[in-house]
C-alpha cells in the first residue's frame, strides 16, 4: 500500500511546515459526506498516532490512519495552481464515481 506526492505537493507541504515552525508532514484522510459518499480531508500532522501509517516521498511524510488506507491506497497527491486558485488534488485509482461538483466520491 502506498500514497505518493508529486514534487509540487511536497514543496507545498515543506513550505507550510517551515512557516508553521515544524511538524511531521501531511495528514490525509477521508470522511463520509456529500452526495457520493466520501470527501478528502487534508491537514498538517504534528505527530503520528497509534494506528497511523507513515509514507515518505521527496523528504515529506504523509500520515494516514489504517482505517482510511484501503480507500486511499495508490493515491497520488498533487498541488496545483490555476489562476489565483491553488489546492491539493487527488488521483485515486479506487474512485468509481465523483459527484458533479467534484467534492465527493464513491469507491
Can you tell me about this structure?
The chain has a single domain (4-106), classed as Hypothetical Protein Aq_1857, Chain: A. The protein is 17% helix and 47% strand. It has two helices and nine strands, in the order βαββββαββββ. The two termini are 16 Å apart.
**Domain tally:** 1
Query: Which overall shape is indicated by the principal axes computed on the Cα atoms?
Result: globular
**Regions with little confidence, pLDDT below 50 for 5+ residues:** none
Report the C-alpha radius of gyration, rounded: 14 Å
Short description:
Helices cover 17% and strands 47% of the residues. It starts with a strand and ends with a strand. With 107 residues, it is of the alpha/beta class.
Record keyword descriptors for this entry.
2 helices, 4-stranded mixed β-sheet, 3-stranded mixed β-sheet, 47% strand, single chain, Hypothetical Protein Aq_1857, Chain: A, alpha/beta, globular, 107 residues
Topology, element by element:
Layout: E1 4-5, H1 7-20, E2 25-33, E3 37-45, E4 52-57, E5 60-65, H2 69-72, E6 76-82, E7 85-91, E8 97-98, E9 105-106
Parallel strand pairs: 1-6, 2-5
Antiparallel strand pairs: 2-3, 4-5, 6-7, 8-9
Amino acid at each position: 500500500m502506498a500514497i505518493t506526492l508529486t514534487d509540487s505537493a511536497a514543496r507545498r507541504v515543506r513550505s507550510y511546515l517551515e512557516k508553521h515552525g515544524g511538524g511531521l508532514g501531511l495528514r490525509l484522510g477521508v470522511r463520509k459526506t456529500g452526495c457520493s459518499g466520501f470527501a478528502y480531508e487534508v491537514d498538517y500532522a504534528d505527530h503520528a498516532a497509534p494506528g497511523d501509517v507513515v509514507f515518505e516521498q521527496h523528504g515529506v511524510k504523509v500520515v494516514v490512519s489504517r482505517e482510511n488506507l484501503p480507500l486511499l491506497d495508490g493515491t497520488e497527491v498533487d498541488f496545483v495552481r490555476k489562476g489565483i486558485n491553488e489546492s491539493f488534488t487527488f488521483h485515486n485509482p479506487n474512485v468509481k464515481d465523483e459527484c458533479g461538483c467534484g467534492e465527493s466520491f464513491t469507491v
